[in-house]
Structures are given as C-alpha cells and as structure tokens.
Amino acid sequence: MDYLLNSSMEMLDEYYQPKDTDVVISLVSTEECEQRYHSLPYYHILARNMQNHNIRYCKAEMFKDCILGTLLIPDKRSIEETVLSISFYMNKNLLVLVDDSKHIQAILTILEEGELLNCKTIAEFLCQLIGTLEDALFLQELEQHMSDLEEKIIKHTISDSSAQLMHIRKRLLILHSYYQQLSDFCEDLEENSNHFFQAEECQIFSLYASRIERLYDHSQMLREYALQIREMEQSQIDARQNRTMRILTVVTTIFFPLSLITGWYGMNFSHMPELSAPHAYGILIVICAVIVLIEIWFFHKNNWFS
Fold first, then answer.
1. Which of 67, 60, 99 is closest to 82 using CA atoms?
2. Distance between CA 268 and CA 34 in Å, rounded?
3. Rounded to an integer, what is the distance from CA 209 to the centroid of its chain?
4. Which of 78, 297, 55 minimizes the C-alpha distance to 181?
5. How many CB atoms neighbour CB 94 within 10 A?
6. What share of the chain is helix, strand, coil (3-state, %, to 5)?
7. How would residue 80 be classed by pLDDT, with cut points 50, 70 and 90?
8. I want to staple 22 with a disulfide (CB 3.0 to 4.6 A). Which of 18, 127, 169, 272 is the partner?
9. CA–CA separation, 291 vs 242, rounded Å?
10. Is the pTM of this model over 0.90?
11. What is the bridge-based pairing of β-strands 24-28 and 94-98?
C-alpha cells in the first residue's frame, strides 16, 4: 500500500508514476518488501532488520543518501503487547515501513486519525508518527493512579497493593527504556551525520528530542515515586508486625508469673503446707488476680498496649 505524502489517505495505484518532488509512504509486509525493494541501496541492512522479527529497540543507522532502522512502540496499557513494531527504510523520496502485517492496520489507523500524510516533509512525518504514539497524558494518569494507591495503602483499604505496585513498576521500566531509546533515536537524526536533512528538519528532531527527554525524566520520577510507595508499604507492614509482636510479648509476660506459680505448686513434694490450708485455693486465686492487675496497670502506664 502506497500513499503520497502531503495528500489525503487515497492509496496510489500500481500505474502511478511518482514525480521528482513526490514523497511516497509505502506500507509493506516482509514478503512484499523483498519483492519490491530488493534493489534498494543497503537493502541487506533492511533485510537483516526484517529477519529480526522480535524487534527489541528503536534505532537509526545513517548511510549515504538513506537512513535505516527499527521502531518499537510499547503498549502503555499492557506491558506484554506492542502498538508498533516495524523496520523502516528512508531516502529523499521514499519511506518504507515494513511489518509482517501484524501492525499494518494499526499504522493505517494512526495515519488516518493523526492526518499524518498532511505533513510537508518526511522528517515531519516521522516525528509526527513518533509524537502520535508518545502519550504524556498516560504518565499523568499513571501518576494519579499511584497517588490514589498510596492513599489507599495509608488508609488500609486495599489488599493487593503489592501486585499493583509490581505491575506499575514493570510498566515504568519498559517506558523508561523506551523513552531512552527514542531520545537516542531523535538525537541521531538531529546530528544528521550524513547530511540527509535540512536545517529546519533537524530543528524538528531537536524539539521532539526535548519532549521525549522530559517524558524520560517524568518516567524516572515516577519510578522513584513507586519505590517510595513500596518502602512506605513495607514500613507499614513492619509496624503491624511490631504491634503484633508487642501484644504477644505483653500477653506472655502477663501469664509468665502464673505459669511459675502453676509449676511451683505442680511439684510432687510430700510436705507443702499450703496444700492443706483450708483457704489456700482462694488465696492463690486472689494472689494471681492481683499479679495480673498490677502487670496490666504497669503496662498501661508505660503505653505498652498502644
């Protein structure tokens, strides 16, 4: 599927003859790319990228009169999915986006909804494509979700906070890595080592690199915030365990003298005058009750119950 840049979403037919000033955006599968573009300069680099179906990062390789690379855009809502995973080839009049058809429909939707074909230059198109997929609003929503989660942890109104925090930290790790790669990607294009772009186009990449750097900083801040929430949750768990241990210690201490008395009078000595006294049982009960009351008073006075 071929489209003309700076036009509508009308697809070009096979008989269209591009002019020297035309820029064609070509969306093809791996098989179609091998059939149509095998004669392109540095095609072996593109073939190498296409063979690596499990694209893991964003990169741009600068060559004479062309740029090759890969784009991996993670799904911010689901850490196990990707929104876009493509190889690309770019020269002055052509941008080939290659995928095994898994994301072709997603690319078409992005082009149509973002009206990306209205861009004037191929650099602007590439930046708009990246800009359409980076979502600052998502980071704000994630920050608000973390704030709500922190409040629920403080109020003890949530039971699966650890699982939610782990999921959030995984998403932030993927986004942090993605923004780092995307920042390097834009900086490589901005450097323009092969003099492929005009000065105005390099300025566009500079602006997008700055935006992505801010997103990178924001994701780093959220990672630190998630760590703080995790530490706060752990401190609350430790505090609850300490309170439990304090209660167990107090209860054990209260009944320790009674255990001593029980053990003392459980001895099988033949001469224990208290056993034959008529009121010994009642007196022993009173003594035990007094001991317990004194201990409770002492612990309460020293705030050992709080």
1. 99
2. 98
3. 21
4. 55
5. 19
6. 60, 15, 25
7. low
8. 18
9. 26
10. no
11. parallel
